[in-house]
Every structure is written in structure tokens, then in C-alpha cells.
Amino acid sequence: MSLFNKKDKEIEAVINQIRVDLSNNYKDNAVENIKKLETLLEEKKSSGKIKEKAASEYQELLEHFKNDVANFKRTY
Predict the structure, then answer these.
(1) Closest by alpha carbon to 34, among 55, 8, 63, 72?
(2) Are 8 and 54 within 8 A, CB to CB?
(3) C-alpha angle 54/56/67, rounded to 5°?
(4) What pTM, to 2 d.p., does this model score?
(5) Which CB contacts under 8 angstroms, 24+ apart, belong to 61-70?
């Protein structure tokens, strides 16, 4: 879903892992990676390594993931 002009490879790797975790019903792993993404995003924003527009778009995606995990239902 990344529509960012210049993607941050480290953040994108975590996002891809969260998507894999959610698609495979790995809630615990998804929660860990969401926390990792949140920390990484804060570090990059505070150090100025990411532009504000990209940071807000990543933040929106992070909130989407948090919502997905909150509504997560096991299929077994």
C-alpha cells in the first residue's frame, strides 16, 4: 500500500512482516511487530530521518494495524 515517494526500507520491512503475521493469524507476532513499528517510527521522526508527510501516512497505517489486531479473531 505504500504510496510514499521515498520508502524507508527498514519501516517497510516491518510493515510487510505485520501483513504476513496478520494473514497467517499470528496475532502475538503481529502485536510484537506493531510495537516495533511504533518505536521505529518514533525514532525516525525524532531524529528527522523521515519527512512529516511520510510519518503521518505511516502513523495512519500503524493505527490501521492496531485496529486489525483489536478485532482479531482466531479461525480455529
Answers:
(1) 63
(2) yes
(3) 120
(4) 0.84
(5) 61/1, 61/15, 62/34, 62/37, 62/38, 65/18, 65/22, 65/30, 65/34, 65/37, 66/34, 68/22, 68/30, 69/22, 69/27, 69/30, 69/31, 69/34
Please give the chain's pLDDT, 76 residues, in tens: 444 456 889 999 999 999 999 999 899 999 999 999 999 999 999 999 999 999 999 999 999 999 999 887 765 5
Alpha-carbon distance of 22 to 7, in angstroms, equals: 22
Cβ pair 34, 65 in contact under 8 A: yes
Question: Is the distance from CB of 41 to CB of 58 less than 8 angstroms?
Answer: yes
All three cell numbers of 39: 518505536
